[in-house]
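Sample entry (76 residues):
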Amino acid sequence: MEIKLLGSGCPNCRRLEKNLLVALEQLKIDEKIIKVTEYLEIVSFGVMSTPALVLDGKVLFAGRVPTVEKLKKYFE
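Predicted structure, serialized as tokens:
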């Protein structure tokens, strides 16, 4: 499983990372999160607003910060 967090490091990006880490821990998923901060790479996913989450090459969402519970549903 490849998990990418797309974003510049803004407050919402950090909130998404925190929520994602909690969700993965609760689900006992031990995967590395790849942070993508380069604008051109972010745009290559078709993402125009951050933060965004990419799972195995598929953009799950962009421009929002889901709760821990909503994030867990992506991985169940």
